Automatic annotation (TrEMBL):
The gene is hisD. One of its GO terms (biological process) is L-histidine biosynthetic process. This is Histidinol dehydrogenase. The keyword Endoplasmic reticulum does not apply. The lineage of its organism: Bacteria, Pseudomonadati, Pseudomonadota, Gammaproteobacteria, Enterobacterales. Its cofactor is Zn(2+). Catalyzes the sequential NAD-dependent oxidations of L-histidinol to L-histidinaldehyde and then to L-histidine. InterPro entries: Ald_DH/histidinol_DH, Histidinol_DH_monofunct, Hstdl_DH.
């Protein structure tokens, strides 16, 4: 039996150092080894291209193939190989995700900033994007939807979907319904290297999207520094932080915590609660509910990273949560929406006991690709504009240039930029 009682902490009696330790992510400790391994993988793909990819496919995924590309015939045929029940559930999820994301499409912005001076934003889809759908512990079919729908809405034409082999018919079905016909049976850090650097058969992309394990996330961070390919965000092992008050339901809280602990042994779940008895009851519920879950190896491992923290006040809970910057923040508190004003850092917030994290993972329509590791302090959840570039367009009339010429001269000469000033003076002669 797992003993998580030792993961109970009383915030007010912790030292500063202990507070930092309690809020630290589990996998940060092994970061150096991961960095080195991923660096080596990227370097090998750079030097040996497809040969390296075949060899890593064999080493990490025990998979051999002639081509990394899945044929169009196989993608189309997936429709005959998945159940009607699955198709029906996907159709509801797709409709909700589409509803929320289609409202995110930006329309052109134009402002006359000064009489005769116009500044405009126009939007263009990123030309080629790579979507990483994880499949180590679980084939995340829902993630294929979360990535493909905003990519399509943004108008991206060249979309490559990439997932560890063998790719399930369910993931191929998502590719089919969203008309994505470039599907690569490649996973892990080597697939990210291939998408960023290109090989003999894999075309490199402009931006890589999607969550993944510690190797995938590290690879995304490294390639974004050594190539022209950018990334959506660091979206690593799932995390959840729950804030609960004395009226919360321990069974509901336990079920939410278990749901995210299920993702990977590096996942972390945290409870901040103002009442000791609720914390104790949540732990009892976790033990009880664990008995109902088959294949709980991952959960048993990741629960070692869990934290159950008794805090003096709800206000303090929000301070701690902002410090931690969780991927998912669930408020099991009365009148939860009144507390939104205290939240500065979180990937996605779930209000009240009838909004479980798992609903957001699949069906509410919100995107479940979210920043982890504390990056919710500056990154946002995935949205359509991540797949677009904003280009600024400016235009001035002759009269506007005349009117502003003195100010431009003053500013450019103050900076010692004589040629800048000259570009105005040259025109003034013709006005
Ligand atoms: N933050 C988010 O938005 C979000 C969303 C969904 C999932 N996730 C997270 O994504 C992660 C998915 O991880 P996963 O492992 O299930 O799938 P994954 O596809 O990210 O990684 C699996 C691949 O990693 C490679 N790999 C495995 N062991 C390796 C090793 N020792 N060295 C090098 N490479 C190795 C293999 O190629 C394997 O196919 C989970 O941690 C989950 O919590 C996060
Ligand atoms: N909870 C994950 C994001 O951290 C998303 C997901 C996919 N499937 C189930 N859950
Ligand atoms: Zn999940």
């Amino acid at each position: 039996m797992l003993n998580i009682n030792k993961n109970i902490f009383y915030w007010n009696i912790l030292t500063k150092k202990e507070k930092i330790h309690v809020l630290s992510r589990p996998h940060i400790n092994s970061n150096k080894n991961i960095k080195e391994l991923v660096f080596k993988i990227i370097d090998n793909v750079k030097k040996h291209g497809d040969l390296a990819l075949h060899s890593y496919n064999l080493e990490f995924d025990n998979f051999k193939c002639k081509s990394f590309y899945i044929s169009r015939k196989k993608i189309d045929n997936s429709s005959n190989l998945v159940s009607k029940k699955f198709k029906d559930a996907i159709s509801i999820a797709l409709s909700n995700i589409n509803n929320f994301h289609s409202k995110q499409i930006l329309s052109d912005l134009i402002v006359e900033t000064y009489p005769g001076v116009y500044c405009k934003h126009i939007y263009r889809p990123i030309q080629s994007v790579g979507l990483y759908v994880p499949k180590g512990n679980h084939p995340l079919v829902s993630t294929a939807l979360m990535l493909s729908i905003p990519a399509k809405l943004a108008g991206c034409h060249n979309i490559t979907l990439c997932s560890p082999p063998p790719i399930s018919n369910e993931i191929l079905y998502i590719a089919k319904i969203l008309k994505i016909y470039t599907v690569l049976q490649l996973g892990g850090a080597h697939s990210i290297a291939a998408l960023a650097l290109g090989t003999e058969t894999v075309k490199f992309v402009d931006k890589i999207f999607g969550p993944g394990n510690i190797f995938v996330t590290e690879a995304k961070l490294q390639v974004s520094q050594c190539s022209l390919t950018s990334i959506d965000m660091p979206a690593g092992p799932s995390e959840m932080l729950v804030i609960a008050d004395d009226l919360s339901n321990p069974a509901f809280i336990a079920s939410d915590l278990l749901s995210q602990a299920e993702h990977s042994q590096n996942s972390q779940v945290i409870l901040l609660c103002t009442k000791n008895f609720i914390v104790k009851n949540v732990i009892k519920e976790i033990q009880k509910q664990l008995l109902l879950i088959p294949n709980k190896n991952i959960i048993l491992h990741s629960l070692k990273n869990s934290r159950f923290i008794v805090v003096n006040s709800l206000k303090e809970c929000f301070k701690i949560s902002n410090l931690y910057s969780p991927e998912h923040l669930i408020l099991h508190i009365k009148n939860s929406k009144n507390f939104l004003k205290y939240i500065n850092n979180a990937g996605s917030v779930f209000l009240g006991k009838w909004t479980p994290g798992a609903a957001g993972d699949y069906i509410t329509g919100a995107n479940h690709v979210l920043p982890t590791y504390g990056y919710a302090n500056s990154y946002s959840s995935l949205r359509v504009s991540d797949f677009q570039k904003i280009i600024t367009v400016q235009k001035m009339t002759k009269i506007a240039l005349q009117s502003l010429s003195k100010s431009i001269a003053t500013l450019s000469l103050m900076e010692g930029m004589n040629a800048h000033n000259q570009s105005i003076v040259t025109r003034i002669k013709f006005l």
